[in-house]
């Protein structure tokens, strides 16, 4: 799997012209269409973790891009869950609905050439009074653009989309077109973030997310969905960050899966997460990981709150 850490779009221009237009752009869609990959690619930093599994994104995350007097605040959201109805999924769905309530532009992402029932359920939730850009992602898999035309024809009847833009978030194709169209829809106003900020999330939050991403990628089909990561210590010690984190699982039986034979899984996860942290934080990181059982946390509103889910 390619990691989105470099990109070919111009970087944030801290020394650029003063921001005249600034606004929120929500990225919505069913799980796995590539929303988080898109935000990372636009920002050029890993603000949001990605994997081929549902539930990878659990929170609303802002990714900020400042370019040509415009500040784009992309709002990455969890994929709208239509199946499992525990408290965690309800919390994730609330996050999506709240994110939609006060954005200037909605980017609705689907896979090019493929429209599922789950896509249509998300489409039905989108506000009528906001411009919606339809993004056809993963065009690197569909080949010839001409083949997409009948699909575009059909899908353009579903709603009055402000624009339909084919992209590949993974390759970076079509993103300049997206920025052009979205940039023209941003309201006038001053910047909300410093030009060199790329997210509203703390290093502490990012650290926990990078660990969770590696677990999601490493654990394959035996992944216990009820796992979470809690940062227990985050100390900046000169040019070193000392971080201790607990992987929370909901059942004793899951502990062994996360640790792996001879500690192998946890070791691999820790090493990969540390590499991401060092790149994004620009410092050395010392990371300690252990596993903790907290039964039933994913269906416990109080436990969710302590893990940073919004009420
Ligand atoms: N081939 C291809 N895969 C992509 C593209 N964008 C995302 N993916 C993959 O799709 C999966 C889901 O991506 P993610 O960004 O986590 O989706 P999200 O659930 O919508 O946030 C990951 O395995 C990504 O690598 C793309 O443009 N092309
Ligand atoms: Mg995501």
Compact summary:
This protein is α/β, with parallel strands linked by helices and 311 residues long. The protein has helices at residues 35-43, 87-101, 117-125, 149-155, 175-185, 203-218, 252-259, 264-281, 301-306, and strands at 21-28, 61-67, 70-76, 105-111, 132-137, 163-166, 228-237, 240-249, 284-293. It contains nine helices and nine strands.
Would you mind describing this structure in some detail?
- The chain starts with 20 loop residues before the first strand and ends in a 5-residue tail after the last helix.
- The model is unreliable at 1-8 (pLDDT under 50).
- The protein is α/β, with parallel strands linked by helices and 311 residues long.
- Helix 6 (203-218) packs antiparallel against helix 8.
- The chain is built from 9 helices and 9 strands.
- The strands form 2 sheets. Strands 2-3-1-4-5-6 form a 6-stranded mixed beta sheet, sandwiched between helices. A 3-stranded mixed beta sheet has the order 7-8-9.
- The chain has helices at residues 35-43, 87-101, 117-125, 149-155, 175-185, 203-218, 252-259, 264-281, 301-306, and strands at 21-28, 61-67, 70-76, 105-111, 132-137, 163-166, 228-237, 240-249, 284-293.
- It is 32% helix and 22% strand.
- It has 2 domains: 21-185, P-loop containing nucleotide triphosphate hydrolases (Rossmann fold), CATH 3.40.50.300; 203-306, GMP Synthetase, Chain A, domain 3.
- Strand 2 and strand 3 (70-76) form a beta hairpin.
- Magnesium ion (MG) binds at residues 35-36, 48, 56-57.
């Amino acid at each position: 799997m390619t990691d989105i850490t470099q990109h070919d779009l111009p970087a944030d221009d801290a020394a650029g012209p003063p921001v005249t237009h600034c606004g929120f752009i929500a990225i919505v869609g069913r799980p796995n269409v590539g929303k988080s990959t898109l935000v990372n690619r636009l920002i050029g930093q890993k603000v949001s973790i990605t994997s081929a599994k549902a539930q990878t994104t659990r929170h609303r995350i802002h990714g900020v891009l400042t370019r040509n007097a415009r500040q784009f605040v992309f709002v990455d959201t969890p994929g709208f869950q239509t199946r499992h109805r525990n408290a965690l999924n309800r919390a994730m769905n609330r996050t999506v609905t709240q994110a939609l309530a006060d954005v200037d532009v909605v980017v609705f992402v689907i896979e090019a050439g493929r429209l599922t029932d789950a896509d249509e359920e998300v489409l039905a939730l989108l506000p009528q009074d906001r411009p919606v850009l339809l993004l056809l992602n993963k065009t690197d898999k569909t080949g010839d653009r001409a083949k997409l035309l009948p699909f575009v024809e059909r899908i353009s009847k579903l709603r009055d989309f402000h624009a339909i833009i084919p992209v590949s978030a993974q390759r970076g194709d079509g993103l300049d077109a997206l920025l052009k169209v979205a940039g023209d829809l941003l309201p006038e106003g001053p910047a909300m973030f410093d030009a060199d900020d790329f997210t509203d999330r703390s290093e502490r939050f990012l650290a926990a997310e990078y660990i969770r991403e590696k677990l999601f990628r490493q654990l394959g089909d035996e992944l216990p969905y009820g796992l979470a990561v809690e940062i227990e210590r985050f100390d900046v010690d000169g040019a070193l960050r000392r971080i201790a984190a607990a992987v929370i699982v909901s059942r004793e039986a899951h502990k062994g899966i996360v640790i792996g034979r001879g500690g192998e899984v946890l070791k691999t996860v820790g090493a990969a997460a540390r590499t991401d942290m060092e790149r994004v934080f620009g410092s050395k990181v010392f990371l300690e990981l252990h596993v903790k059982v907290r039964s039933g946390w994913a269906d416990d509103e109080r436990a969710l709150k302590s893990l940073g889910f919004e009420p």
